[in-house]
Amino acid sequence: MQPSERSPSIYRRGLIIVATLATAYMASHFFRASNVTIGLDLMRDLSIGPEALGALTGAFFFGFAAMQIPCGFFFDHFGPRRTVTGMLILATVGGIIFTMAPSWPILLTGRVLLGAGFGVMLIGSMVVITRWFPPDRFSTLTSIVLSVGLLGNLIATTPLAWASEVTGWRAVFGAAVLFTAIAAVAVWIVVRDAPPGHPFLERKPEAVGEMLRGLMEVLRNPWLRPILALNFFNYACTFTVQGLWGGAFLREVHGLSPIAAGNVLLAAVVAYQLGMLVFGPLDRVFDTRKWIAMSGTLVIAGLIAVLAIPASPPAWIPIAAIVAMGFFSASSTMVMTHGRGIFPDRLIGRGISTMNTSVMLGVACMQTVSGMILGMFEPLPGGARAEIAYRSLFGFLAVILLVAVAVYSRSQDIKPSQEMRMREKAGA
Fold first, then answer.
1. Rounded to an integer, what distance in angstroms lies between the CA atom of residue 222 and that of residue 220?
2. What pLDDT digit, counting tens, does each position of 59-85 carry?
3. Which domains does the chain have, with CATH numbers?
């Protein structure tokens, strides 16, 4: 059944499925972003340094990245319903281990399992959107999923800071683990792999050899490499600021309290959600994805440079830069939308998972490297890091982001109008 032939009831069913996945996706954002709020508490409670905190934060994304290619196979073979449900169960187990961990190695194990379990959420949503809706709605619906998921990121800012001071971070994480378990049940009940009449439901599952040949077909796609370059560094650089060191920077350099720093990060998340709603439909408005992604990334590089270049600026400057970065970070979804357009439907799971692998490997590597950069500077009396340590980190992020944009500029744009014509021709 072609998208244009689907009834309103099919679209309503698709929206309910997407809403269920988006709600479950909130847990992923909460766990991945929580270290920016409780990072200093973890360092104090477990007697670890910035290198260990960076490794702990990166562990989530190493686990996340490790599951991308396998989950691409699972999506194309088993479908989103069974894959997402099973991996959410794994995330629940990881969350229990993390919440109850008495030491850093066990905490690390739990965080790796959390990342592995949540590694399917965005891809699963994208696969469902691809099969239930027309191609020109992909960017808008993906942005909505991300915007809903970011409510988890929002909860990981001021609400987490407040709740941690009242009950401790372990109690808050226990509630998040329970939410994850409930989400697994909801996905199993509500989600369906494709609408009635879709070719996926009539497919003959590929043998292992065929699946591997499909993966090689994805990796040999000549349009993929420049997209992977920006995917690797874009989210990695913004998350290093907003998901790990931004809160510590505001507290240690500019003297903000934990709640005040959490408020800044909350404002950045709200700005990100607004950005999702703004950037989502822009590819249909301007009939391009490449140039929207490039423009947004260049603005982000400039904002990170604002954190790096001036010495001892008034606090409102880095605060404004971090909030603005939240808004323009939404342009990163256009890179994934760009990449999705270069794969046929039969390779959607493996194609999106390959792109997401580069995203999460980039974040994992950047968290680890960022901890090493800060660890190169001797702490001040009391354990805080000096301003020059943070400025050096931010300068490094700005430079490598500019290099990534230069590589991505060589990519082939996939315009929505072009993609619609190609799919209509294929359907005919």
1. 6
2. 887 888 788 778 777 777 778 888 999
3. 13-427 (1.20.1250.20)
